[in-house]
Design brief:
Length: 203
């Protein structure tokens, strides 16, 4: 193997991106079949979800907690319990953030400005440049974009397939591609039931 190819291979393994690919989790409910347009995402979903992300060197995918507010409102104050989505309808997707019964924030996303309809999913793109440390402590600079493809599962959960792509580089190594896929699942929100009052003893 030529020297430059060995360096690129080592850089790919060392980076956090890890050139990883991950299929849809088999233990989740199947995704609803979508057409060519946007799916209807209307519903209320837990803010706390579960993310499946590939690890380095083909290890077992990790299951970690993730928050839905990051996708729709990264600057939202902490404490959200759930989000309500309405649409997309007439080119608009309404997002409402709640803390229990109290509304924290509400805003509207517009088609072609904030999201796209692609392959039966609502696609939200964002770009950024990141400096990160690899497991060995090497500084890795990455620039690219992240696309979240939103759809619904048959059990009513909101599913987000996050596709990250771009270029990364490290000391003495040219930039190399960083493809990475993760899956997030946000169950339907179920309000907590009030505790039943205990009957009072009468003497």
């Amino acid at each position: 193997m030529p020297c430059i190819e060995r360096l690129l291979a080592l850089a790919c393994v060392a980076s956090l991106a890890a050139c990883a690919h991950l299929d849809y989790p088999a233990d989740w409910a199947p995704v609803q079949a979508g057409g060519s347009g946007c799916p209807d995402l209307t519903g209320s979903y837990d803010n706390e979800g579960s993310r499946r992300a590939a690890r380095l060197l083909g290890q077992t995918p990790a299951a970690v907690d993730f928050q839905l507010t990051y996708l729709f409102s990264p600057g939202a104050p902490p404490g959200a319990t759930h989000l309500t989505l309405l649409g997309p309808r007439d080119g608009q997707l309404k997002v409402t953030i709640w803390q229990g019964p109290q509304q924290m924030d509400a805003h509207i996303l517009s088609l072609d400005h904030d999201f796209q309809c692609e392959a039966g999913a609502v696609a939200i793109r964002r770009g950024e440049a990141v400096d990160a440390l690899s497991p060995s402590g090497t500084v890795v600079a990455a620039a690219g974009h992240e696309t979240d493809y939103l759809m619904k599962a048959r059990d009513g959960s909101l599913i987000a397939r996050t596709q990250t792509s771009g270029l990364a580089g490290m000391f003495f190594v040219p930039h190399f591609p960083i493809p990475l896929k993760t899956w997030d699942r946000y169950p339907p929100y179920v309000p907590a039931k009030p505790e039943a009052s205990k009957p009072q003893n009468r003497d």
